[in-house]
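Design a sequence for this backbone.
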């Protein structure tokens, strides 16, 4: 098989890249290790920056997020048992974020891909990338016991943190930066009305962090910080709901509607960046190149901005015969990545209990929260990062 761009991974980055390239008349094949149902079963992100929503429109899949997404104008910070609204829209001259699940973004992109008759190879095993430092890169994989090869001009590594693309780069050519946090998030999805349908709730409590989010007006997504070695089986639904209520202010705790969990999982928290994001004709995008702790809601949004830079670069290459975009991809993407890394690390540090920062560290955290809610300058800094910095920020 021959194509212009071979995309590894059919998560949001790979699917969005495929759709933007298709719109520009560029041929791409996607190779995915899992089945489509498995990809749709992963419950992850829920908050989209306007830049991400705009990209979904550009890709021709914006109708449903427009119709079914819930626009948020503020966030609620809870600490010392008290709620403090932050007027995100007022502080950013009218900007908003949209609550719409990653599962739905993925479904919209999968449906569009299928309707356009584009090729996605699901359940491909032993995927390997070859000769991306020359001019004739190749991808090989096995499917139904048969070996297959794709010849291409470029390879897009959109295969997530545990993918094959970053792992195939010679060790000396890549620099990795990492911080692992000493706790995880236990997440529960339940078919109940969200306690705060128009603002995500971020709670710093002496029992640890908690977050109240949503997938729709009838489906809630809640998280509590938990020890890193806890197992899902340690957490009955009852224990989870009790713990969540204990971490919120009394009014909100009293309004939580509980119900049986339909998904429950524990995610570790990590900050990670691989530099550069281009190796000859191989590009990394999304979680393949970087991970943020979910506190800032930036992972999916960063994946979308990488894809915007990369699709523009590839379109420029084919349409205008210029490699300027390709040559600056890594540097442009990394500038935005590090800003989101900083924001996600900062918000994580501000809101969680750390085992080693009792005493002085705890007091500094309280002073910073107090400063944040009373200072317009600091609230504005939070708000402008939360809605997403512009794609050309600082350029
Ligand atoms: P994905 O989604 O991991 O997709 C990669 C795909 O590649 C496939 N793959 C392979 N395919 C072929 N060959 C191989 N060798 C392969 N190895 C892997 C995988 O099967 C998979 O289908 O990466 P992508 O597309 O870059 O998307 C990134 C996002 O998924 C991620 O950043 C977000 O989910 C992060 N995140 C959040 N981001 C936000 O912007 N807002 C949020 O509110 C938010 N909340 C979250 C989150 C992530 C969470 N977890 C569980 C990590 C909340 C949580 C709890
Ligand atoms: C989610 O809805 O899963 C979510 C929302 C906001 C965050 C993280 C996760 O900061």
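Sequence:
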């Amino acid at each position: 098989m021959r194509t212009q761009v071979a995309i590894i991974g059919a998560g949001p980055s790979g699917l969005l890249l495929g759709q933007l390239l298709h719109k520009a008349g560029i041929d791409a094949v996607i190779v995915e290790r899992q089945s489509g149902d498995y990809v749709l079963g992963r419950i992850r992100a829920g908050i989209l920056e306007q830049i991400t929503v705009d990209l979904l429109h550009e890709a021709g899949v914006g109708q449903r997020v427009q119709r079914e997404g819930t626009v948020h104008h503020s966030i609620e910070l809870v600490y010392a048992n008290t709620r403090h609204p932050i007027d995100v829209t007022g502080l950013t001259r009218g900007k908003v974020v949209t609550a719409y699940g990653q599962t739905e973004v993925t479904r919209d992109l999968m449906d569009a891909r299928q309707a356009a008759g584009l090729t996605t190879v699901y359940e491909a095993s032993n995927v390997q990338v070859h000769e991306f430092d020359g001019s004739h890169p190749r991808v090989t994989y096995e499917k139904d016991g048969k070996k297959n090869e794709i010849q291409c001009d470029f390879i897009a590594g959109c295969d997530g943190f545990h993918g094959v693309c970053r792992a195939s780069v010679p060790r000396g050519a890549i620099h990795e930066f990492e911080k692992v946090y000493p706790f995880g998030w236990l997440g529960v999805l339940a078919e109940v009305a969200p306690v705060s349908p128009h603002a995500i709730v971020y709670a710093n409590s002496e029992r640890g962090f908690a977050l109240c989010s949503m997938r729709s007006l009838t489906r809630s997504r809640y998280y509590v910080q938990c020890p890193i070695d806890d197992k899902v089986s340690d957490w009955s639904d009852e224990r989870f709901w009790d713990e969540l209520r204990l971490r919120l202010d009394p009014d909100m705790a009293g309004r939580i509607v509980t119900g049986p969990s339909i998904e429950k999982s524990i995610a570790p928290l990590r900050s990670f960046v691989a530099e550069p994001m281009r190796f000859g004709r191989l590009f990394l995008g999304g979680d393949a190149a970087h991970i943020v702790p979910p506190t800032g809601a930036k992972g999916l949004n960063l994946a979308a901005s990488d894809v915007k830079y990369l699709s523009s670069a590839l379109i420029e290459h084919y349409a205008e015969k210029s490699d300027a975009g390709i040559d600056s991809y890594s540097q442009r993407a990394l500038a935005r990545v590090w800003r989101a890394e900083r924001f996600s690390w900062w918000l994580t540090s501000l809101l969680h209990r750390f085992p080693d920062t009792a005493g002085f560290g705890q007091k500094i955290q309280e002073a910073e929260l107090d400063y944040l809610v009373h200072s317009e300058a600091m609230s504005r800094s939070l708000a402008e990062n939360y809605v997403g910095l512009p794609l050309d920020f600082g350029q």
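The pocket of RFL (ligand 1) is lined by residues 8-14, 31-34, 39, 44-47, 102, 127, 158-160, 162-164, 185, 187, 267, 286-287, 294, 297-301, 303 (CB under 6 Å).
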